[in-house]
Amino acid sequence: MADRRLQAYGLSVAVFAVDRLSKWVIEQRVSAFDVHTVIPGFFDIVHSQNRGVAFGLMNDSPSVWRTLALIVFASAAMLVVASMLWRASRADRLTAIGLALILGGAAGNLFDRIMWGRVTDFLEFYMGDLHWPTFNVADSCVVIGSGLLLLDILRPRHQAAQT
What we know:
Elements: H1 2-29, E1 36-39, E2 43-50, H2 66-88, H3 93-116, E3 119-127, E4 130-131, H4 137-154
Helix pairs in contact: 1-3, 2-3, 3-4
């Protein structure tokens, strides 16, 4: 049981590390004016800063409390996810992986918010004039982890026959 918990929290740490490394590379090598096309007409590497939340919500908010509020809410959410992961790592593997990805991603973005008051985003997908909001590794892990939790919820459960 302790080994499964160690693996789950280790996955969270790995997500955090990959997220930080990828953001550091972008911050060091890509200016705010650069666009590195990976797949023409579909995927670019850019360098943007998000002071808001998902999809840039609250990005332009003039409130001095914005960053503090986001840090407090993200910290509370991380504590909830960390405690859920502690319990879930004993049970279902899919749930534990999903929660570990969410925890690591949330930690990556929270770190940025605490250190700089913003989050570095760099993955930009689009088709023609349709652009998905720019995101990063942490965001990707949160979405993938959420998807795994959803799959786990929707997965049929086998119950033992009662005799």
